[in-house]
């Protein structure tokens, strides 16, 4: 077989990380961990640049120390983005049935401090069948290395049935 034959026979749509599931194969309680990561000064600087948020609690160590914190505090959205489904396997499990991200909500319970390691998790909490589509609701959480729940919320996705 020549290289041309091999190149022409390759289908990038078959290059899957995990087996995909239909809506009916999903189950309440299915969990989708997102890899842990330690957030340091570079993460905080990148988020500040992207968000334009210039409050000193997010970038001034001395300001934070004067307020009694051990380091920079993450913006709530910086905590929220740790639960981006694409950072884990959830959208790969859905594959082609995914239509789109509908909405999200979140509650911030404790501060994320620079140097913390986060452990994001997504878990199916509800599956709602409609006529030709379904809604997958995910519970989203972020814990730190001290097993403190920093954030909890919900994300909803519209998917194709079948």
Automatic annotation (TrEMBL):
Residues 35-141 form the MaoC-like domain. Pfam families: MaoC_dehydratas. It comes from the Bacteria. Gene3D superfamilies: Hotdog Thioesterase. CDD domains: R_hydratase_like. This is MaoC family dehydratase.
